[in-house]
């Protein structure tokens, strides 16, 4: 029977293994994960886990018994160091070899760090793994709060951590090199509103700013921000991610940018697939050639992959969607932001806004703050490619649902 080996033990890996069983794959399935934990949910690490609203043990997707019941062999603390495509074999960190018939790469991405001295790194935090989140959580819970926490990077993770720290009473300084927050992912109006929100909640936000002269100081770090010397309790580094593809160096599919796949998540090697954060799908509606980091992409790609391997039914076509929670702002997005779209704004009042990205008579993207119903409507419109009258969408006297989902 065909043996499937999945390298990586995150959401995509867990979903793919169980989908393979649901689609009646009877051969061996092995998941190899380099962390010591069961596959777990990462979005709460920068939000609910830091604020002690969720015990980290509850982020685990499924207990070990589920994998056992489904006859999925799950190996933790197991790193893969090499690939032999001819022999269809993986080299593990202990020097042993593992054969595969089909290989699925689900290794995800790690947080990008900065080239800092060891003394500074001792007071620096990344927030992309269970252990990293727990280290920062300990700092936030036990630190003196007499010095600010400096967050380098105004993307989703950096802003989520900043919001969590402020809600825990920490002084916070956000340093962003770009001209606006979340600049690559959201509409300028969303950036503007989130900037106002963070400042209203007491965070200091410095845009168009690069941190300089970082060095260790007493129980923290010192750095220069816009000419001002700051003594900080620590740094949170949220400047993007690097894909985990090192073990593929020397293979025909290796790329430090991510693994290119077709619509079935298959790489140029027909026996190797890639799913989740590590994959770049070249034939995906609304996201062709883009590496996506989201729960939705991990689950959707895993099901597509399982269907391609087993011949099972593919999941319904679904546009990419994302979310982030910052203070009492719930920002939800469907599709990908592009300045080339015609963007229509609906001010819903009371801290709620809806932005609709239109191309001709179709909605291609949408972004909302505290407008869950509008988001659900736009998801349906984008997925079903429903025709709309763009000129009418700004009419807030009517609900968006009535304007789009006309009978």
Structure description:
The longest helix is centred in the last third of the chain and has 16 residues, at 295-310. Helix 1 (11-22) packs parallel to helix 7 (295-310). The chain has three domains: 4-45 and 58-110 and 242-310, FAD/NAD(P)-binding domain (3-Layer(bba) Sandwich), CATH 3.50.50.60; 113-237, 3-Layer(bba) Sandwich (FAD/NAD(P)-binding domain); 338-404, 2-Layer Sandwich (Enolase-like, domain 1). It contains nine helices and 26 strands. A hairpin with a 2-residue loop joins strand 22 and strand 23 (329-334). The N and C termini lie far apart (51 Å). The mean pLDDT is 95. By secondary structure, the protein is of the alpha/beta class. The strands form seven sheets. The protein has a five-stranded parallel sheet with strand order 3-2-1-7-19.
SSE layout and pairing:
Blueprint: E1 4-7, H1 11-22, E2 29-32, H2 64-69, E3 72-75, E4 80-84, E5 89-92, E6 97-99, E7 102-105, E8 109-111, H3 118-121, E9 124-125, H4 130-142, E10 149-152, H5 156-167, E11 172-175, H6 188-200, E12 204-206, E13 212-217, E14 220-225, E15 228-232, E16 234-237, E17 241-243, E18 259-261, E19 272-274, E20 279-281, E21 290-291, H7 295-310, E22 321-326, E23 329-334, E24 342-349, E25 352-359, E26 362-369, H8 372-384, H9 400-404
Parallel strand pairs: 1-2, 1-7, 2-3, 7-19, 9-16, 10-11, 10-16, 11-12, 18-20
Antiparallel strand pairs: 4-5, 5-6, 8-17, 13-14, 14-15, 20-21, 22-23, 23-26, 24-25, 25-26
Helix pairs in contact: 1-7
């Amino acid at each position: 029977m065909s043996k499937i080996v999945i390298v990586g033990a995150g959401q995509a890996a867990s979903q793919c293994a169980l989908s393979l069983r649901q689609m009646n794959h009877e051969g061996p399935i092995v998941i190899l994960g380099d962390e010591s934990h069961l596959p777990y949910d990462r979005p709460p690490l920068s939000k609910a886990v830091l604020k002690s609203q969720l015990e980290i043990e509850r982020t685990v997707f499924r207990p070990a018994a589920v994998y056992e019941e489904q006859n999925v062999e799950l190996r933790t603390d197991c790193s893969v160091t090499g690939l032999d495509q001819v022999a269809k074999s993986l080299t593990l960190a202990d020097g042993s070899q593992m054969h595969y018939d089909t290989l699925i790469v689900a290794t995800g991405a790690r947080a990008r760090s900065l080239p800092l001295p060891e003394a500074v790194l001792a007071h620096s935090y990344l927030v992309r793994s269970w252990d990293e989140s727990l280290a920062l959580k300990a700092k936030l819970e036990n630190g003196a709060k007499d010095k600010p926490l400096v967050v380098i990077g105004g993307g989703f993770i950096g802003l989520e951590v900043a919001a969590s720290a402020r809600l825990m009473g920490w002084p916070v300084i956000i340093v962003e090199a770009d001209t606006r927050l979340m600049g690559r992912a959201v509409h300028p109006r969303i950036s503007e509103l989130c900037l106002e929100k963070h400042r209203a909640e007491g965070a200091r936000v410095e845009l168009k700013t690069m941190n300089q002269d970082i060095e260790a100081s007493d129980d923290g770090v010192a750095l220069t921000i816009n000419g001002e010397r700051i003594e900080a309790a620590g740094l949170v580094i949220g400047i993007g991610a690097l894909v985990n593809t090192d073990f593929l160096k020397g293979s025909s599919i290796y790329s430090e940018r991510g693994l290119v796949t077709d619509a079935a998540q298959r790489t140029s090697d027909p026996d190797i697939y890639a799913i989740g954060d590590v994959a770049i799908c070249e034939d995906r509606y609304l996201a062709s050639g883009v590496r996506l980091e989201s729960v939705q992409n991990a689950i959707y790609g895993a099901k597509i992959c399982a269907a391609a391997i087993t011949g099972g039914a593919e999941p319904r076509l679904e546009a990419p969607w994302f979310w982030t929670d910052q203070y009492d702002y719930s920002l939800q997005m469907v599709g990908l932001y592009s300045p080339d779209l015609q963007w229509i704004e609906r001010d819903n009042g009371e801290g709620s806004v809806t932005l609709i990205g239109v191309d001709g008579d179709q909605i291609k993207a949408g972004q909302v703050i505290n407008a869950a119903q509008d988001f659900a409507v736009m998801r349906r419109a984008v997925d079903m490619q429903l025709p709309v009258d763009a000129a009418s969408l700004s009419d807030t006297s009517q609900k968006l649902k009535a304007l789009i989902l006309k009978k």
